[in-house]
Structure formats: C-alpha cells, structure tokens
Design goal:
Elements (H helix, E strand, L loop, with lengths): L7 E2 L5 H4 L4 E7 L8 H11 L6 E3 L5 E3 L20 E8 L11 H18 L13 E4 L16 H18 L18 E3 L2 E3 L6 H12 L15 H14 L12 H11 L4 E3 L6 H7 L4 H7 L13 E3 L2
Parallel strand pairs: 1-4, 2-5, 2-6, 3-5
Antiparallel strand pairs: 3-4, 7-8, 9-10
Helix pairs in contact: 3-4, 5-6, 5-7, 8-9
Length: 318
C-alpha cells in the first residue's frame, strides 16, 4: 500500500486489510456534505459505516489518509476496481451540508498537493477524464458509473473550481502540460460512443432525434429542418452552442458530445425530464424555472397538496 507523506495516517481497519488491491489510474474529488475535520471523518467511517475514501481534507487544508492508494476504497462505485485491476483514488473534503460552498484556499492547495503526488508516484496522467474508465482527474458528479443513482457532489462551485483552479494547479505544480483530451477516431466517421450509442458525423437513430429535441428546448437550435434521425452539421453546430452555454473550455466546444455534457443536456431538457427538489424550493419556483405552471406540475406528479414537496423528491417535468 502507498501512503502520501503529506497526510496524517489514520488507517481504517479492518477495511484496509479486507479490500482488494488496485492499480490507481484516476483521482476523483468529493465533498462529504459535512463540515468535518479529517479526524471526525475518520471516526464516522470507523464507527458508523463500512464506506470510506482514501483521503480526507479539512477546511484548513489538513490531510488525512485512511486507505493506501493501492487498495480499493468504496466512494466511487464502479470506479473502485475494474476488470483490468485499475481503480480510482477518492479524496473527500469538508463542505457545508448542501454541497454549495467553494473549496477554501487551503483546501485547494491540499488537493493540488495530493494530485501532484498521485501523478508523480502513480503516473496518473495530467488530463481530465473523458469517460468513467479514462485515466486522469475528475469530480464525483462527472459520470454515472462513479455513483449510485447520480450525484451532485461536489456541487457547482467546486466543479467549476476543479476546472478553473485545481486541475490547472496540479498541472502547473507537476511541471508538466495537460494531456490532450481524446478526440473521435477519424476512422469511425467522427462519432463517439456514449452508453452504447454513437453521436457525431455518421451516427443515426432515435437517440439523435431525442438529443436534437433537447437542444431545441435548451435554446441551442441551429436546425432549419429536423432534428434527426441522421446526424447533420446542424447537430454539430447546435451541440457546440450547448457546450459554450455550459462554459466549457474552447477546446471542448467542438460540437461532438462529451459524456458529461450530454448527460446534463438530457437530464435538464430531454424527453424524460425530471427535477430533484432542493431545500427551500417551492412548486411555483420550480414551475417558473421550467416555463410551466405549478398546476401542471401538480397534475402530472399526482400531488394532492402542492405545498407538500420535500428535498430529494423527484418531480416529472412536462
């Protein structure tokens, strides 16, 4: 097992000895949704659950390590260990209860230190993961295979910090240059495969039509006819607008879907749209956000009392 010299060792037992070995190829950053010190996180995992991450980072930048980085930890779902023996290293960090606060400057510095060590010690490549199995760095919310049923962790503010501050900081501190994100194989017609379906030039099918309808709802349409079922240049231009609307880096705004970009589009504007109720939201506010009425939402969700919605509840959208 490998132990980061910049962390206080708080080894979890019997988990540390019971978990299988991995060859780490990814680093995934999390928020624990609790304002805990690394010691409190250790005590929680030791006494209350058999789940755990490799590292914990406090608001003050203090770092603890609970599991060796060549041993599986449970926080990344199917990224924990793959059939080829590779796996992800997980880094929890203190946060508020709703995943809405940014990392502190001290936390950012600690995450960068861990990232640099993972690159230098384990050879994790200096790139942002483009798929759930692609070696590199990421945040927990990026891929469904990294969670059980989807997650918002570590929140919008920290996901933005990861791309703008943390990952570039790791690259700079490691004295290297980021590896280019993989592009579609020209021999495949320019398409990428996401969840078993092809997207891009040469692709066709009802999933292309569904994507196009979502782009129209998102206000990103560049269609004169259609959309779908054949991929056209209008699909490329429309998806490029969506990528730009997300604020992605220019090199990632090529009109070819990335898994995270597509997942967010379909989640927010797809044919089977849903909304997860957040703390303090009302049905009226949710309806206004999606251009509908509270009466319509109440009807399609069978709400006898529209004033009784609770955080975490999933609502169907028209």
């Amino acid at each position: 097992m490998a132990w980061f010299p910049g962390a206080q060792k708080m080894e979890l037992q019997p988990e540390s000895d019971a978990q299988p070995a991995i060859r780490p190829t990814q680093v995934i950053f999390h928020s624990i949704a609790a304002p805990w010190t690394p010691r409190r996180t250790y005590e929680y995992w030791r006494d209350s659950t058999n789940l755990e991450s490799h590292f914990g980072v406090g608001f003050d930048g203090s770092i603890a390590q609970y599991i060796g980085t060549e041993t599986r930890a449970d926080s990344n779902m199917h990224a924990n260990k793959r059939g080829d023996g590779t796996g992800a290293v997980s880094v929890e960090s203190a946060s508020n209860l709703e995943h809405t606060d940014p990392w502190t400057d001290a936390q950012v510095a600690a995450l960068i230190r861990i990232g640099v060590w993972m690159h230098q010690h384990h050879g994790v490549p200096l790139r942002i993961c483009r798929s759930h199995a692609d070696p590199g760095f990421g945040v927990h919310r990026m891929f469904a295979a990294w969670s059980d049923g989807g997650t918002g962790c570590p929140g919008d503010a920290r996901a933005d910090q990861f791309r703008r501050v943390v990952f570039p900081g790791i690259v700079a501190a490691a004295g290297g240059k980021p590896m280019p994100n993989p592009k579609p194989n020209p021999g495949s017609g320019g398409a990428v495969v996401i969840d078993g379906k092809a997207y891009g030039p040469g692709a066709s099918g009802p999933h292309i039509t569904a994507m196009g309808r979502a782009l129209v709802r998102a206000g990103c349409s560049r269609y004169k006819v259609g959309p779908g079922p054949e991929w056209t240049s209008a699909d490329t231009e429309s998806f490029r607008v969506w990528q730009q609307k997300l604020g992605d880096y220019p090199e990632n705004c090529d009109g070819i879907p990335g898994p995270l970009q597509l997942a967010r589009l379909l989640r927010e504007f797809g044919d089977s749209r849903t909304h997860t109720v957040a703390r303090g939201e009302t049905l009226t506010a949710i309806a206004r956000r999606y251009g509908t009425t509270w009466q319509t939402l109440a009807k399609i969700n069978g709400l006898a009392n529209p004033n009784r919605i609770v955080p975490g509840q999933t609502l169907k959208l028209p």
